[in-house]
Amino acid sequence: MASHRLKEYNPDTELISGNTIKNANVSANMLRSKFYVCPVCGNVIHSMGEAAIQCHGILLSPLEAETSDEQHMIFTERIEDEYYVRIDHEMTKSHFISFMAAVSSDNIQMLKLYPEGNAEARFKIRGVKKIFFYCNRDGLFSQDIVKGIDDKESEYYYSDERKELEETAKKLFG
Ligand SMILES: [Fe+2]
Known about the structure:
Blueprint: H1 2-8, H2 12-17, E1 34-37, E2 44-47, E3 53-55, E4 58-60, E5 66-67, E6 73-79, E7 82-88, E8 97-104, E9 107-112, E10 120-124, E11 130-135, E12 139-144, H3 160-173
Parallel strand pairs: 5-12
Antiparallel strand pairs: 1-2, 3-4, 6-7, 7-10, 8-9, 8-11, 11-12
The structure holds fe (ii) ion.
């Protein structure tokens, strides 16, 4: 279907951005997904390849994902057919995790988060290879799912008992 193809590739995009965008077969691998966030309104845009995207008159650059650090620790465990993912991070109005996404080669599950909420999500496992999350102050982070660790079935749900253990561990090991 020729008309379908036209929708996926529009050469005008290059004219708007001034950059040459060399996307080839963008649908081949969603693990190469790009995320754009508007610094004015916080709008989040997901793209399967690079694109010229404007919001509030600003040409947005695709975010570069860093590996999660000590201030942005991610905990993943398997609960039945889902990954339960939690980010150890504050959720205040000025500093919070704004979205989380679980990506496989052909699928993305994306969740918007808000201040005062919990920085946690449950994603269907089906082929998920990477978790992305975005901190409004520190940017985009990603973490690969590690086979044998993250997909291990948890023996208990996130509970007060576990919270207590984690707090104790934090006190002991910093
Ligand atoms: Fe942060």
